Structure formats: structure tokens, C-alpha cells
Amino acid sequence: MRKLILLLFILTILIPNKNQAQDNGAAVAGAVGALAAIGAGVAAVEQMKERAELTATEWLLANNPNITSFSLKTIDFDGKKLKDMSSASVITFKIQEFVPTDKPELDGKKQVLLGFTSHGWINEYGIDFNKIKWFLIDQSEWTNMMVSYVKVASGETNNSEVESTIKNGRIVNKGVRLKNKLTIPFYQLSGDMYVVTDYSNEMKFIYNEKSLGIFLKDTGDLVQIKRGSLIELHEFFFEE
After folding, report:
1. Fewest CB atoms within 10 A around its CB: which of 45, 62, 143, 146?
2. Measured between alpha carbons, how far is 177 from 165 in angstroms, rounded to an integer?
3. What is the pLDDT of residues 90-126, one digit of tens each?
4. What's the predicted TM-score (pTM) here?
5. For residue 206, what are the β-bridge partners?
6. Contact yes or no for 173/187 (Cβ under 8 A)
7. Residue 113: strand pairing partners
């Protein structure tokens, strides 16, 4: 009798419960499905990135025939999920010219291409590039934009002082830092507060706590450049 009990106990240990086995199988299948979904999302974002860079290159070639050798890269798709990109309001591209040679260096003119998106730019068929409005910005124009942005974000009024500070310092989350000192602090606003300035015939700039808002007068769209992208683009123009 004892041997029978011992045998039954061993069999209970060695043979997994049917329901438990089913649960384990479902868990494994769910994990595989989740990994497949993640892989599909990564692939979709990478495909969007390639299409965006191709379309930006085509736009640049069609509208700026004087640019004959250049590098073009977007920063917006790095580390992003598909749902992040579907809600993005602007795609930013870094462009730098170079002299063609064997193993050339990127040491030529720098520009930024901004692609402002509107509602429905990503749908079940992919990217609708007809819903993107393009602006090509050189360092001089970028400086003017940042002077206007910093002034509306801080209340500073002296153009030359603001320009000198942003050229020699760094834009950070809380303002403009020069030699490790926060020289121009930004207003501390709540998320539903905005300060507006009329920048040009095409744009108004809107400052709130976390981003640069740009109101496009032609389309009536309010889009945002996140502070992280803003900082990276500014460093692109003014890095040593």
C-alpha cells in the first residue's frame, strides 16, 4: 500500500496537470504573439522612417536643385513606437552638405527641414505625404526663430543680447544656459497656459511649459516641436 501511495505521489510530480499545461501553453503563445506584435511595430516604424526620408529627399531635390551633395536624416523615429508617430505633429530632418570625395566628411552647410503634419497623415494605408507642409530652414533663419521663441518664453526684449546668448549657450528645459548658468530662465507655466507671438506671415509661435507650438496661418493647424527635438536641432546648428 505504501509503495502504491509513493508511486502515485511520484506520478503527480512528474506528470503536469493538464490545465496547468494548457495555461503554460497559452502563456507561451501570448508571449510569442506579443513579441511578434513588437517586431511588427518596429518594422512599421522603420518602414515609415525610410519612406519619410525618401519623400523628404525627393522634396529637397525638386525644390532646391542647387544642393547637389548632402546627408539627410530624421531624428523623430529613433526609439519611437508606432502610436507615438501617429500623434506626431512635425517631422524634423537634419541636412548637411559635403564635398564629394572618397570617405567625405560632413563639414558643409547645415539646414533643417521641417515637415508639419495634419490630421490623418498616418492611416491604414501608410503615410499620406500630401498632408505634410515643408519648410527648409538655414542657420540664420533658425537663429531668428529661436530669438523669437526665447523672447516669448522668457519676457526678454533685447534682440542682440538674446541672439548672443543662444549662439554661445545651450537651450535647455528651463531656459538658455550660458557657461553653466541659467542666463535666460523660461516662464514656469501650467500645461493649459500659452504665450503667443506673431513670428512671420506664415507662423505664430506659442510657448507653454513643454514645447514650442507653431500655428500655421495657411492651414490653421497648431503643431508642436517637443523640447527634446528643439534642443537637438539647436545643438546641430551650433555644436563645435
Report:
1. 62
2. 8
3. 888 999 999 999 989 989 999 999 988 766 666 666 6
4. 0.74
5. 196, 213
6. no
7. 93, 136
